[in-house]
Design brief:
The protein is of the alpha/beta class. It has helices at about 1-10, 45-65, 150-160, 170-180, 205-220, 245-250, 270-280, and strands spanning about 15-20, 70-75, 90-95, 110-120, 140-145, 145, 165-170, 185-195, 200, 235-240, 255-260, 260-265. The strands form two sheets. A seven-stranded mixed beta sheet has the order 3-2-1-4-7-8-9, with helices on both faces. A five-stranded antiparallel beta sheet has the order 6-5-10-12-11. The longest helix is centred in the N-terminal third of the chain and has 21 residues, at about 45-65. The radius of gyration is 19 Å and the shape is globular. The structure holds zinc ion (ZN). Zinc ion (ZN) binds near residues 23 and 76. Zinc ion binds next to loops.
Length: about 290
């Protein structure tokens, strides 16, 4: 009896949960808005390429030992991934708003986070479609004084739940910036930026081969990675491209206007900061329904 119990315990596979946050600007081949939204003439094809990069990351996670995968569709309208192409075992987070933005659904039960199709941040002079959260509205996002790209905000959210980022894919600027912030995460460079709207890119198939290799390697050495934990309370500084958002937000007692274009919000943790970021990029009085 004792023996039977110990054998079955050995045979029982250890649970390993992977969270995949998927953006689109860093997908192989993407260079302009023509690939990035429903109005673009190449969008229909490129949402397929995005889906296939995510599918590859899902498959690679399972191949390397993951037992559960959650995917968040975290670009544009949040309805890009062709969900029927993903395996039945996967669930998908879709559309907005979400309190944890591009990391909605993550919690302490996950073992690692993978970022697919990521791009560099708005203060980076390099990278295809470099921006942070809103290319039209925000000129800088700082956490505790440090300018961060979306990968940094999202790594801090994962870190809040004790989950390390283990892999990122995107252009060379995005991967370099993420590794500079987070350390030795696996990186798949699928294109090389010449400018905001130009790059030399891998083909979709070659990019998927690289993503498969890097995700597998990351999952196999998942114990090497440390969660990105930032000090609490968390001071968020946001610089708007326009003038009036900072003027009006500063009417709220929790918000301080730090210069003509900037506000500061101090959250007890990154979750509060995430909700504040989602609020200021979502709210308008005409919201319906
Ligand atoms: Zn995006």
């Amino acid at each position: 009896m004792m023996l039977a119990v110990s054998v079955s315990a050995q045979q029982q596979q250890r649970k390993m949960k992977i969270y995949i946050s998927a953006d689109m600007e860093g997908v192989a081949g993407v260079v302009t808005g023509e690939q990035l939204g429903p109005a673009g003439f190449e969008y229909a094809r490129f949402r397929e390429f995005m889906t296939l990069e995510v599918l590859t990351a899902v498959e690679a996670s399972f191949e390397a030992g993951a037992t559960e995968v959650l995917v968040s569709d975290s670009h544009g309208n949040g309805q890009n991934l062709l969900i029927e192409r993903l395996p039945k075992s996967v669930t998908v987070v879709r559309s907005w708003p979400r309190p944890l933005m591009m990391m909605q659904g993550i919690d302490e039960s996950f073992d690692g986070a993978v970022f697919i199709g990521y791009h560099s941040g708005t203060t980076n002079p390099e990278g295809v479609r470099a921006h942070t959260i809103s290319s039209a509205r925000l000129a800088d996002v700082r956490l505790n004084g440090v300018s961060v790209p979306e990968a940094g905000v999202n790594a801090a959210i994962a870190g809040h739940f004790g989950v390390p980022v283990i892999m990122v894919s995107g252009d060379d600027a995005a991967v370099k910036e993420t590794q500079a912030l987070l350390g030795d995460v696996e990186g798949a460079v699928v294109k090389w930026a010449y400018g905001f709207h130009s790059a030399r890119t891998m083909t979709p198939e070659a990019a998927r081969d690289l993503i498969r290799e890097k995700v597998q390697r990351a999952v196999r050495r998942i114990r090497d990675f440390k969660p990105y934990k930032i000090k609490t309370p968390v001071t968020l500084d946001v610089r708007f491209k326009n003038y009036r958002p900072s003027e009006v937000l500063a009417y709220l007692s929790a918000v301080e206007r730090t210069d003509a274009h900037s506000v500061r919000f101090v959250g007890k943790d990154i979750v509060e900061v995430s909700k504040f970021l989602e609020f200021i990029t979502t709210y308008e009085p005409g919201l319906e329904p």
